[in-house]
Amino acid sequence: MIDFARLSHWYFWSNIYPRPISDRFALFFAIVFGLMVIGAYLCRRRYRELKKRDRFVSYFWRRLSTMFWSLGLLGLFLTFFAYEGAPLLGARFWFLGYGLLALTWLGRIFYYRYHRLPNILSANADAALKKIEHRSA
Questions:
Q1: Per-residue DSSP letters for 9-41?
Q2: 137 has a pLDDT exceeding 80
Q3: How far, in Å, CA of 27 to CA of 19, rounded?
Q4: Nearest alpha-carbon partner for 77 in 61, 60, 101
Q5: CB 105 within 8 A of CB 71
Q6: Element (H or E) spanning 62, and its range?
Q7: For the chain, which terminal residue's Cβ has fewer other Cβ atoms within 10 angstroms, N or C?
Q8: Would you list the DSSP string of 63-107?
Q9: How far is 21 from 14, CA to CA, in rounded Å?
Q10: How far is Cα 124 from Cα 55, in angstroms, rounded to an integer?
Q11: Nearest Cα to 121, choosing from 59, 76, 49?
Q12: Which of 80, 137, 70, 129 is nearest to 102 (CA)?
């Protein structure tokens, strides 16, 4: 049985000599972070498909691939040290930092996708339309 009350204690997160995580949690985290690395590969393939046709949209996939690759490997690294119960590197506060890093990075990627990319594409469409009108005149 998991004791979720420990998650609300400051000592659980700040202890630099943590107890090792259980086998189940280690396996769960290893699977999740391994899937992130596989997702990075799939995003990279999508980037390569779109690179020639639409470089601005492909840039979104490249950013996503870089995030999955970096966070997947960093997560596997943190999981290994947490499983081994290594002092300092196995501390739980690294997972809080990891979560903050992941949310910030994902926020920046979706800011690009849903805020900047439509503006870029509409500006390119306007420039292309002006170029066509100029040639036909």
A1: -HHHHH-SSPPPPPHHHHHHHHHHHHHHHHHHH
A2: no
A3: 16
A4: 101
A5: yes
A6: helix 55-84
A7: N
A8: HHHHHHHHHHHHHHHHHHHHHHT-TTTT-THHHHHHHHHHHHHHH
A9: 15
A10: 12
A11: 59
A12: 70
Express each pLDDT in 90-122 by its tens digit.
998 999 999 999 999 999 999 989 988 888 888
* Residue 46 in tokens: 């999508």
> What's the pTM value of the predicted model, to 2 decimals?
0.82
CA 78 to chain centre: 15
Q: What is the distance between the alpha carbons of residues 92 and 19, in angstroms, rounded to a whole number?
A: 10
Q: What Cα–Cα distance (Å) separates residue 84 from each residue in 27, 67, 81?
A: 13, 26, 5
Residue in the block written with tokens 């979104």: 60
CA dihedral over 85, 91, 96, 99, signed as positive or negative: negative
Tokens 């036909």 correspond to what residue? 136
Rounded-to-integer distance, Cα 80 and Cα 74, Å = 10
CB 18 within 8 A of CB 94: no
